[in-house]
Amino acid sequence: EIVLTQSPGTLSLSPGERATLSCRASQSVSSSYLAWYQQKPGQAPRLLIYGASSRATGIPDRFSGSGSGTDFTLTISRLEPEDFAVYYCQQYGSSPRLTFGGGTKVEIK
Amino acid sequence: QVQLVQSGAEVKKPGASVKVSCKASGYTFTSYYMHWVRQAPGQGLEWMGIINPSGGSTSYAQKFQGRVTMTRDTSTSTVYMELSSLRSEDTAVYYCARDSGDIVVVVAATYYFDYWGQGTLVTVSS
């Protein structure tokens, strides 16, 4: 099973700042089959990025994904108030053994 | 618009079973696989399994093998997840989540999720 480790656990930033979230896999994720989700309190997750770098439908271009192999990054170029949430990475390269990371909380500083 | 509407919260005793429903609308039900994902309070996400709404075939995460059953009713566009032999560690919010791939186009599931239900809280307590 591929273990995904997200860092940092919590990121304290101000609106307008840049957020850089890391997701590291215990072994290579085939074909960059990595997705990112955003989850706000009391809500279901929302798909942001798939295939490591493709934005899902309706996702603003301030969200971008990059990386390959074992190291992946989600970048939010300028934080908007609605971006403060928990972010999860998910690998689906070894499906059906897909796994999620433990999450990074982006909080208002 | 795509909607996945789940059944309401449940409280169960240890050893009991729970069956959660997820009614789909706004798309062709049989064209997209459906997954179930759970989230324990304050914890991360955990994949439970997948069902093909067209043929009914399923695949479950090893952790839940023997305890989980996923079924579907094409006449009502509803998928179900039943979890048996409940224990306190099963207390969680259970989500249905649609696979992003149109079966007609991609044939196989993509294993990432473009639409989610609102979640169903299952509490296991004596």
Describe this structure in words.
The complex is a heterodimer of chains A (109) and B (126). By secondary structure, chain A is mainly beta. Chain A has strands at 4-7, 10-13, 19-25, 34-39, 46-50, 54-55, 63-68, 71-76, 86-91, 99-100, 104-108. In chain A, strands 2, 4, 5, 6, 9, 10 and 11 form a 7-stranded mixed β-sheet that branches. In chain A, strands 1-3-8-7 form a 4-stranded antiparallel β-sheet, with no helix packed on it. The radius of gyration of chain A is 13 Å and the shape is globular. The mean pLDDT of chain A is 95. In chain B, strand 4 and strand 5 form a beta hairpin. In chain B, the strands form 2 sheets. In chain B, strands 2, 4, 5, 6, 9, 10 and 11 form a 7-stranded mixed β-sheet that branches. With 126 residues, chain B is mostly beta strands. Chain B has one helix at residues 103-106, and strands at residues 3-6, 10-12, 18-25, 32-39, 45-51, 58-60, 68-73, 78-83, 92-102, 113-116, 120-124. The A-B interface holds A 33, 35, 37, 44-47, 50, 56-57, 88, 90, 92, 95-103 and B 44-47, 50, 59, 61, 95, 97, 100, 109-114, 116-119.
Give the count of helical stretches of chain A. 0
Strand content of chain A: over 45%
What do the pLDDT scores of chain B average to?
96
Basic shape of chain A:
globular
What global shape of chain B is seen?
globular
Determine the fraction of residues in helical runs of chain B and give it as a percent range: under 10%
Given as residue ranges, the uncertain stretches of chain B (5+ residues, pLDDT < 50) are none
Category from helices, strands and their pairing of chain B? mainly beta
What does this entry show, briefly?
The complex is a heterodimer of chains A (109) and B (126). Chain A is an all-beta fold.
